[in-house]
Write a structure and sequence with these properties.
Elements lengths: L3 H8 L20 H4 L9 E7 L7 E8 L9 H6 L5 E6 L6 E6 L4 E10 L12 E4 L12 H4 E4 L3 E7 L2 E3 L2 E3 L6
């Protein structure tokens, strides 16, 4: 089962659309082989610094899409079947230290990135407990962010970006409040 489409629908972050009515189930391994960074990666990739995690439990799932509204958060099988960009990295949340993920991209260019924190580690996303973030760190509302708001440009080597996680806050999603 896909994480990102059910979580966004449940959270009211995206309006219903026939684009998201996928009938082919997603393969959890789709896009992972192409996304895997090598040790000391030197090619086109994104080095994602994850900020604002609620805790150190569960898994993180990073996904890379074409940076246009039609393809951003579209079904992974449809994207791959059409020869479009889709990359996925999934890792347990490290227990200590800075949280960084690396994802290879096909080449220099513009992409849209989503990051999900499944706190219970299950493949089903729950907007009431799990977190979500996007490249560009847009303020989240009642619809999915526009691709232009989350678009990032990857260079010919590793490109560092930061993604701030958002969790349920009242009726919406927002970064955690820092106590200080």
């Amino acid at each position: 089962m896909r994480w990102h489409i059910p979580c966004l629908l449940a959270a009211g972050l995206i309006a219903s659309s026939s684009v998201f009515a996928a009938t082919i189930p997603s393969s959890p391994e789709l896009g992972k082989k192409e996304a895997q960074c090598r040790r000391d990666e030197h090619g086109p990739s994104l080095l994602v610094n994850v900020l604002g995690l609620k805790d150190r439990q569960g898994n993180l799932r990073l996904e890379v899409y074409p940076a246009n509204d039609d393809d951003f958060l579209a079904d992974d099988n449809a994207l791959v079947g059409a020869g479009k960009v889709f990359r996925r990295v999934e890792e347990p949340v490290p227990q200590t230290g800075n949280v960084r993920l690396c994802v290879r991209v096909p080449g220099p260019g513009t992409y849209a990135v989503s990051l999900l924190h499944s706190r219970d580690g299950k493949r089903k996303f729950s907007w009431t407990i799990d977190g979500i973030g996007f490249s560009g760190n847009p303020r989240l509302g009642w619809s999915k962010p526009k691709a232009a708001r989350v678009a990032i440009t990857a260079g010919s080597g590793p490109t560092p970006i930061s993604i701030v996680m958002n969790y349920r806050s009242g009726l919406g999603m927002s970064p955690l409040k820092v106590k200080g």
